# Entry
Amino acid sequence: MLQSSTPIESQEEVNIMSDHNIIATAAPIEHPEQTGPHDPHEINPKMASDIAYWAKTLGVTGEQLHETIRVHGTQVGKVCAALHVHKPS
# Structure
């Protein structure tokens, strides 16, 4: 007569189930809302949050900011100078 599972398989199944339950009941990691730029000295044009923050701060559109970054680089000081805007403190 064949058994459908061995004691080792049963123990593995218990471990898998208990690991799954731990993951399922773990509290989600909460990140504080980011209110400023990722880096106050560099604008990351691939981060929508950076573009939104700096465009609003500098009073330009995201498209204008992208074009300025393309021509002048990602350093906030250079972008501000190119846009003739004072660098925010």
User: Anything to note?
Assistant: Residues 34-89 form one domain. The radius of gyration is 26 Å. The mean pLDDT is 78. The helical segments are 7-25, 48-58, 62-72, 76-83.
